[in-house]
Amino acid sequence: MRKKPLLDIILSVGLLTFAVLYVWNNISEDTDKVSGTADDLSKKEILEEYKDQIKEQGPEYAYQAFKDKNQQSHFLAHLFGEALFYVAGTDGVGVCDDTFEFGCYHGFFSAGIQEEGMGIISKFDEACLRIWGSKSMPCQHGIGHGLMSSGVSLEEALGWCRKITWQPTGGCTSGVFMEYNFPALSDHTGTAPRKEDDKGYFYPCIEVLAEFKNGCYIELPQWWLSVFSGDFIKIGSLCNEIKDSEHRQYCFYGLGNYAAPSTGYDISRIIKICGSLPSRDSKKWCRESAAWIFLTRPDSHANIAKLCEGSQECLDKLKQNPFYEN
Asked: Which pLDDT does position 198 carry in this prediction?
């Protein structure tokens, strides 16, 4: 069995709520006009309005005001992200977050790629590191979403991930696989799970290069949750079918990741889901990865203690996560 760096596991499975909320908030709205406002404004007019707000208020304040005003709007967040890039350039990478199904990131990175070409990816990565330091993984995760939503193939997007700060799982590659499994709709109104086809339930993980397989398998349970209507027992059985022990482990990590948001972060339900899995190791991996998701949530330490109960190894791994706070 191949050895994997401990920090790789800790960081990758601990993408936190930044990534895991992506699938739970599907929306739809009119793409030609934005209704529900005093006037029905065209996309161009809205874009110009957001540019003015960002210039006048500053990127961070303008984005917070945007979120306070708009409760559910991937489409508008996409336009805000575009405006953000045109005003702030690569420095705007520190403003967007996972709200509205990563809409701000989609618009921001797409605008950058359209404006300057794929060569801008390295500049985005440098900005992520400069702004976020050791906590830059969610930022690179956003780059992955932007890459995959820009129209390139899965192979090309992963190739670009390899050229920036390399994180086998959790960062750019996880953003790519998440976007692949839940692509943004062409009209920017939201996302939808990719359709089942004759390539099977383990595609594309069975075909990607070895260096990308862990990143693929950790994201696959999210898609399965959609395909099998939240049937964790079925998903656990699929993870258990994976022959490679390391890939199987990452699949169960992914299952634990998505058990948390799918239950509304209900500890008792998460423990029940993990307890239904087929082996002692799979139960452990599920609870560990679910615990890591709680790092930025209220009362995180109390909840983590329950999920890691009886496992000092689980607690020790958490303490090495850059998002862990005493």
From this structure: 84
Indicate the SS3 state at residue 32: coil
Looking at the structure, tell me whether residues 205 and 99 fall in a common domain. Answer: no
Phi-psi category of 70—alpha, beta or left, where left has phi over 0 and alpha has psi -120 to 50? beta
**Neighbour tally for 243: CB within 10 Å:** 6
Q: CA nearest 121: which of 96, 93, 98?
A: 93
Minimal CA–CA distance to 8: which of 246, 232, 190, 181?
Answer: 246
Strand-pairing partners, residue 184, are 191
Burial class of residue 73, CB neighbours in 10 A (0-12, 13-18, 19+): buried
Q: Which pLDDT value is given to residue 39? A: 40
CA-based torsion, 68, 70, 76, 77: positive or negative = positive
pLDDT tens string 204-249: 999 999 999 999 999 999 999 999 999 999 999 999 999 999 999 9
End position of a domain, from candidates 191, 217, 241: 191
Alpha-carbon Rg for the chain in angstroms: 19
Nearest to residue 212, comparing CAs of 255, 250, 183?
250
- Structural domain boundaries, residue 320: 1-13+199-326
Domain finish residue from 191, 211, 239: 191
Which DSSP symbol is given to 41? B
Strand partners, 34: 41
Alpha-carbon distance of 301 to 96, in angstroms, equals 27
Query: Which residue type is seen at 275?
Result: G
Q: Residue 103: is its pLDDT beyond 70?
A: yes
- The span from the CA of 243 to the CA of 232, in Å, is 19
